[in-house]
Amino acid sequence: MKAKIAVLPGDGIGPEVTVQARRVLEMVGENFDHEFSFEEAHVGGIAIDECGDPLPEQTLNLCRESDAVLFGAIGGPKWDDPNAPVRPEQGLLRLRRGLGVFANIRPVKPHPDLIDQAPLKPELLRDVDLIVIRELTGGIYFGHKSRENDVAVDTCTYSVGEVERIVRIAASLAREREGRLTSVDKANVLETSRLWRATAERVVHDEFPDVKLEHVLVDAAAMHLLQKPDYFDVIVTENMFGDILTDEASVLAGSMGLLPSASLSDDGPGLYEPIHGSAPDIAGLGIANPYAAISSAAMLLRHSLKLDEEADAVERAVARAVHEGALTVDLVRDERKSMTTAEVGDRVCELLSTCTACLSMSSRGFGYRF
Ligand SMILES: NC(=O)c1ccc[n+]([C@@H]2O[C@H](COP(=O)([O-])OP(=O)(O)OC[C@H]3O[C@@H](n4cnc5c(N)ncnc54)[C@H](O)[C@@H]3O)[C@@H](O)[C@H]2O)c1
Ligand SMILES: CC(C)[C@H](C(=O)O)[C@@H](O)C(=O)O
Ligand SMILES: [Mg+2]
Q1: Ligand 1: centre distance to CA 103 (Å)
Q2: What are residue 6's DSSP bridge partners?
Q3: Where is the Isopropylmalate dehydrogenase-like domain (predicted)?
Q4: Percent above pLDDT 90 for the chain
Q5: Tens-digit pLDDT profile for residues 322-334
Q6: Distance CA 217, CA 193 (A)
């Protein structure tokens, strides 16, 4: 098949990990006989430096006319002045909104070989296999904001329609899995959460009677995620809660550098990005973990290009590489045994061409498998 992929590397480690994800997609194109074309554009801090706008019009246009968008990360200390008129993060938020990608899928499934190194007890992690569906284009991120003298305001808004569509996505996914959906809110305090809860209740009751829905308050959910992470199947939540809970969930997997994401709209290109940021503390050192970016590329193959077999092959190559110990420094105890970002990318590409087991077994998507 032919596909056009927009690549937005961004800032900090964004370009370092994105180049590895792009190489993997190129390798998939070669091995499976697809014609993928790639076009790069600036977003975030680098775009501010270039033209004063974190999401230049040509970048958004490129994304809109592509089949999918591979995104690195944005931001960094250079653009962090709280009084700056524009910020890199605004570029990412405008991109999400501009593409209408309201459904952010963040799977969390620890690789068995990394469980012993995680800060949580191995027995808590062994059966963890959860997916967070984060609402991505509403809530406090996009509500009215103001700042006057000593007072700042951020407004959190949700409409019934916005809640219905994200709950439908989450419930459909739960139906294909264990049929359990946990809706996370703060309904004891927030009006938006009460609307969220009532809407989720109605949608699931009317349209997904086979799905078991429960509601958990976000503060308790944060605790349960560490205390009994294997309890969860599909979690659906609003924008900011989903942001915070998924950084927490990355601890279950072992590193921020492992969690991928897909952001989808009703139609139009999907946006694929690791959940981590630009990691200024390690940028430029060549040691960033590229697995989150590479796994995001696998999600791109599966969700935007409908290439399940190819997505499976990439996920198996990742799982195999991890199993062999192809790990960056965030995942090894002994630094001398770590690989660079590029070496990990090399190994995944090699496995994609040589590992017949990676290419042949069939399985269903989301997260690690081998
Ligand atoms: N999607 C995005 O572009 C995105 C996401 C989160 C944060 N940010 C931005 O990134 C900047 C830095 O934010 P932060 O430090 O709070 O979060 P961060 O995710 O960049 O880093 C948090 C910690 O995780 C580590 N880490 C992250 N990704 C890693 C990887 N691939 N390999 C190994 N270690 C990794 C970092 O070294 C750091 O110690 C900020 O400007 C923030 O706004 C951007
Ligand atoms: C950089 C920031 C705007 C972004 C968010 O909060 O959505 C990030 O933390 C993420 O998780 O993708
Ligand atoms: Mg985040």
Answers
A1: 21
A2: 39, 69
A3: 4-348
A4: 93
A5: 999 999 999 998 8
A6: 9
Residue 74 C-beta-side C-alpha neighbours within 13 Å: 27
Determine phi and psi for 87, rounding to 5 degrees.
-130, 150
Over range 31-55, report the average pLDDT: 98
- Domain coverage including residue 369: 1-102+267-370
C-alpha to C-alpha distance for 370 and 367, rounded to whole angstroms:
10
- Residue 204: how many CA atoms within 13 Å on its side-chain side? 26
One-letter amino acid for residue 253 of the chain: A
Is residue 68 located within the same domain as residue 39? yes
Residues 216 and 283 in one domain: no
Catalytic center residues: 141, 186, 219, 243, 247
Residue-wise pLDDT tens digits, 262-307: 999 999 999 999 999 999 999 999 999 999 999 999 999 999 999 9
Give Rg (Cα) of the chain: 20
Burial label for 20, CB within 10 Å (0-12, 13-18, 19+), is buried
- What token pair was written down for 89? 């993060």
Name the residue with tokens 């900090």. Answer: 12
- Residue 132 belongs to domain with CATH number: 3.40.718.10
Of 223, 253, 283, the residue that ends a domain is: 253
Ligand 2 atom 2 nearest Cα: 89
| 203-219 pLDDT per residue, tens | 999 999 999 999 999 99
Q: Is the CB of 76 under 6 A from ligand 1?
A: yes
